[in-house]
Amino acid sequence: MHTLKDKVSQKLSNLFADSPSQSASPRFSNSDSPKARLSSSVGKSLSSYFSFVVPQSGNDDDDSESCPPPLPIRTDSSESIENCKPEYGQDKAGTFVSNGEDKESDKGRELRVSAKVESGNDYLEGVKQMRELTESSVFITANLCEFLQACLPNIVRGCKWFLLYSTLKHGISLRTLLRRSGELPGPCLLVAGDKQGAVFGALLECPLRPTPKRKYQGTSQTFLFTTIYGEPRIFRPTGANRYYLMCMNEFLAFGGGGNFALCLDEDLLKATSGPSETFGNECLASSTEFELKNVELWGFAHASRYLSS
């Protein structure tokens, strides 16, 4: 009995001798040990850190719902594209337009300068031709002189202009004009004007010979001119008739076929003008009936010929 008791005691002793290592397992597991707790805490911290930096696949839907969608980029709107242009681009475009305006203004200035040069050349040419006049005229300007020079027949181009008659110099008398027209035979130029500023006249053949009855004379070289239209204008015979010139002691008339194109009275104070079939002209003066400002008759000849006579 005692032996059995000793055996039991021995077994119990052996049992309790081994119990600390075995009993520690249920009381202290690996997870509860300090080392295990440290590893677990570190692992949890790293896991939470990596889960924050790199989202896990299981949370993609949640993240997409929480983040707002990106704004769409409008590429079909010209307004958006223009608004995207930098300001310096707009300034550059504005500079380009300004340069274009400068070029246009420069071209305009060049055209104006060239026009002035041309007009200056025309004026100088007219002044050069005015030197052919041996005396000053009340009506003939440089522009009109150049125009008349181009209209004159070739036989008198380049000749000097000699003043045969002027009402301011020789008195108001048609008879005096007729008498002085014989000093230079050949083509002569009659120049007259009204008090409103219109200048007109005719090319005729001298000397003028008055007829006792109404009878037309003259040649197809006879023409009329006027400045009533702003620029000098010439009217040559149309060929409708031969009513070139009618000269009497009472009047001097040009044209016919309805009206006289120009008719001066015997005092050279009044005159009339109207449309004529001979020259196809309209009224040459400011009105059909008017007062004359002056009347001039110019002859053409070389200076040596006129002075020697």
From TrEMBL:
InterPro entries xref list: TLDc_dom
Domain TLDc: 138-301
Official protein name in the record: Oxidation resistance protein 1-like
Biased composition (Low complexity): 39-51
Compositional bias of kind Polar residues: 19-33
Coiled-coil stretches noted in the UniProt entry, renumbered to this chain: none
Compositional bias (Basic and acidic residues): 100-110
Pfam families: TLD (PF07534)
Species this chain originates from: Camelina sativa
Primary gene name: LOC104747203
UniProt-annotated stretches for the region Disordered: 1-110
